[in-house]
Specification:
The chain is of the alpha+beta class. Helix content is 65%, strand content 13%. The protein has six helices and three strands; from the N terminus they run H-H-H-E-H-H-E-E-H. It has a three-stranded antiparallel sheet. Helix 4 packs across helix 5. The radius of gyration is 15 Å and the shape is globular.
């Protein structure tokens, strides 16, 4: 418990992040972006996500916007398209936080 106790000042912020990603659409988007990140593929555009999930474009854009505000995703413009990708720095910190809280190795 000592690791958790020393980490308590960050738990409220971490809890808000967990609440944000608990929404099913955002979780699906994060899973997709994480898969691409692990395959060393940079980014995906909104239309590709819409086609894959069969959800309205405005809904996907809304969830991407929320994930971007939370700094979980980053964007890069390629011509007319904006590609979204996992923010590696925040993603790695998030994974480390989960390991600390739940004592994963």
């Amino acid at each position: 418990m000592s690791k958790c106790i020393s980490w308590l000042e960050n738990l409220e912020e971490f809890s808000l992040l967990l609440q944000l990603i608990a929404e099913p659409h955002r979780l699906k988007i994060l899973c997709l972006l994480t898969e691409r990140h692990e395959k060393a593929l940079w980014g995906i555009c909104v239309s590709e996500i819409v086609n894959q999930f069969q959800e309205p474009q405005n809904l996907i854009s809304h969830h991407l916007s929320m994930l971007k505000r939370a700094q979980l995703v980053v964007t890069k413009r390629e011509g007319k398209h904006i590609k979204y990708s996992i923010n590696s720095t925040v993603y790695d910190k998030f994974k480390d936080s989960l390991k600390t809280i739940f004592h994963f190795k």
